[in-house]
């Protein structure tokens, strides 16, 4: 097992171990945000028949030869065709049909003249021009034809994709499975949210944060509760987690825990790949995996992330390593948070050897983003993360980022780019 | 009723009519993405007691006066305190306690020396320095104290907020209600997704798109199906919708429809505020509202949007007017899509008098975004919307946007800013 990887090394290592999950069929209306598994091929034409693109009149062009503003041609309205309706008979010479947007073109008609280019008179209509061939006619299959690949595998399903699926009559769609994520925590000092916190006990808040971090990306978290600092308790909990795609354990803060977790994982057949990433917060991160189909029942080769116990460390390591992993599992290709280039608001200092993720807020100033560290950077102070727009990347070997220096910020807030005003 | 408003006028009019919805209490873990209704005030201290910020030794500073690397002081380890544990007795003079991160500080201890600054020897420990007063001690309530306002009303609940709520023992939280949105469509030519499309009938795909557009922002859509082109059918459907916060109707494309909708709405007591917005796609948009508590049972004063029937027009008008309205109802303040300043990829032309929303893809070129129109801009061609990154705003009175000109693009794709690589 390697120890003390750099952030990029850890990321690559995990990426190399990450499987993409198989497909399931879900109702198209429930597929929002999911990733398409196979191409969607149309079995329909849209529009289903030649139809009118305008409210107006379906005509036979030959009847309007020579028509002009000063030379209108008057024709008889034989019938009307509504959208969803159907022409009762072919258009005879000298006849036109009143037609509405989306309505099928009558047989023998070869163009549509829009209402504005006509004048109603008595029992007929005057036409002020001769249309081009098939003017204002939408051809059958113009939008989508039979056999067209309408959506490609890998596409993320948004509302417009759901609309297109509906128009093709597809009520089911094959998408990548959601990643099932077992969430575990451990430590004698931990209680659930409704537990008694007297005597120095604290709420296992990490479980709730991590649960929500999974939900926020459409993964399927399963919260397995708190194990106690005894090997049998830890083992029982991990056994319950073995059928997940990914196990995310956040340790209590006592040192003893880690040892139990490690020995239990080894007993269950997990290969620990590395321990420790040169970052702050979040150094004590462990990563391992079960082989697919191994004896302990890790059927799908669950990945295992042992996150640190400190709330900020747990949340930040989830962001850096677990979130992109789960997105990749679920078929996404854009798995990373957006980054911005910013200016450092106040000089930052640290020792070399660890990459720091500094919790910051961003302020726009003269067309540039300026980053200010939130108050406490203690890894126990979760409140500082609620106040942050993102994490400033203070590189591994750097010891100072002077005021005004350029730096990279990873945006954590999904709503960061949303605006208070429309902008036009 | 006014007719033919400009986009910004319509937006302001609607904004002035939009109520912010009241509160409901939901499980904190289910509150992701919701907007906090009232301040969250802490009834706890975090940390709950003075505790250690490091693995090391709790000491009485006075015992270590004069300690240095060449002058170590050796002291006896009296006991150990784990996180969640508790010191059995106060620290006596000349004694230290082994202590772990998060563990409560024993009585009489006044600092922590971290493990790295000590050397274990036989039954004792050598200290190589005297700590500062309260060094490596986290004070009780340092992160959060009793009475602190931890989260402000209006804050959007993200995973870190859920973690903070958990640590405070809050399993319920008061948030703005989800907007209940009744979705209706009408037209004799429409069928549901599993319906028979022979004879020129088409799927009411708008309903599915609009349903997903509501879901995507956390609103609560209720799909009421398709009404037929008869007044009693339209009335029955609108009556079923009266208890919603917002009614979104998308007409079929036949002209007769609109008249039924308008007369039914008037009969039910809806005040139609305006009809027609100078935009393309999407001119035939209607907006109205029921008065709160009126005789027809519009209890909460439902807003009514009558959207055009063409798929792209329906989706684009939802984006421009319904989406920000629903977000505002649910307590959000950043209700608008992000916009980017871009360069026009190919010269665009139109007539003056309507603002055009041009479906475009964006390409990065020399550090700038360049917008290219997607193939068809027909308002029937929904596929072009699936291919678009956003909508380019071609202003009302402009007739040309030359290649290379600056323009504003509204980003529609929630995943647009996500990245394939981490970026650091």
Write the layout of secondary structure elements.
The structure is a homodimer of 424-residue chains.
Chain A: E1 2-5, H1 7-17, E2 23-27, E3 40-41, E4 51-52, E5 56-59, E6 73-81, E7 95-99, E8 111-114, E9 118-121, E10 124-127, E11 137-138, E12 149-151, H2 159-167, E13 172-176, E14 180-186, E15 190-191, E16 202-203, H3 205-216, E17 220-227, H4 231-241, E18 246-251, H5 255-268, E19 270-277, E20 279-280, E21 286-290, E22 303-307, H6 311-329, E23 339-344, E24 348-349, E25 355-365, E26 368-373, H7 383-386, E27 390-394, E28 400-401, E29 406-411
Parallel strand pairs in A: 1-19, 6-7, 14-17, 14-18, 15-16, 18-22, 20-25, 23-26
Antiparallel strand pairs in A: 2-13, 3-12, 4-11, 5-7, 5-8, 6-10, 9-10, 19-21, 21-22, 23-29, 24-28, 25-26, 25-27, 27-29
Helix pairs in contact in A: 1-6, 3-6, 4-5
What can you tell me about this protein's structure?
The structure is a homodimer of 424-residue chains. Chain A has 424 residues and is an alpha/beta fold. Chain A has 4 domains: 2-22 and 177-329, MoaB/Mog-like domain (Molybdenum Cofactor Biosythetic Enzyme, Chain A, 3-Layer(aba) Sandwich), CATH 3.40.980.10; 23-46 and 143-176, Molybdopterin biosynthesis moea protein, domain 2 (Alpha-Beta Complex), CATH 3.90.105; 51-138, Molybdopterin biosynthesis moea protein, domain 3 (Molybdopterin biosynthesis moeA protein, domain 3, Beta Complex); 339-411, MoeA, C-terminal, domain IV (Beta-clip, Beta Barrel), CATH 2.40.340.10. Helices cover 19% and strands 32% of the residues of chain A. Chain A contains 7 helices and 29 strands. Chain A has helices at 7-17, 159-167, 205-216, 231-241, 255-268, 311-329, 383-386, and strands at residues 2-5, 23-27, 40-41, 51-52, 56-59, 73-81, 95-99, 111-114, 118-121, 124-127, 137-138, 149-151, 172-176, 180-186, 190-191, 202-203, 220-227, 246-251, 270-277, 279-280, 286-290, 303-307, 339-344, 348-349, 355-365, 368-373, 390-394, 400-401, 406-411. In chain A, the strands form 8 sheets. In chain A, strands 1-19-21-22-18-14-17 form a 7-stranded mixed sheet, with helices on both faces. The first copy, chain A, has a 6-stranded mixed sheet with strand order 8-5-7-6-10-9, with no helix packed on it. The first copy, chain A, has a 5-stranded mixed beta barrel with strand order 23-26-25-27-29. In chain A, helix 1 (7-17) runs parallel beside helix 6 (311-329), helix 3 (205-216) runs parallel beside helix 6 (311-329) and helix 4 crosses helix 5 (255-268). The longest helix of chain A is centred in the C-terminal third of the chain and has 19 residues, at 311-329. Chains A and B meet through helix 1, helix 2, strand 16, helix 3 and helix 6 of A and helix 1, helix 2, strand 16, helix 3 and helix 6 of B.
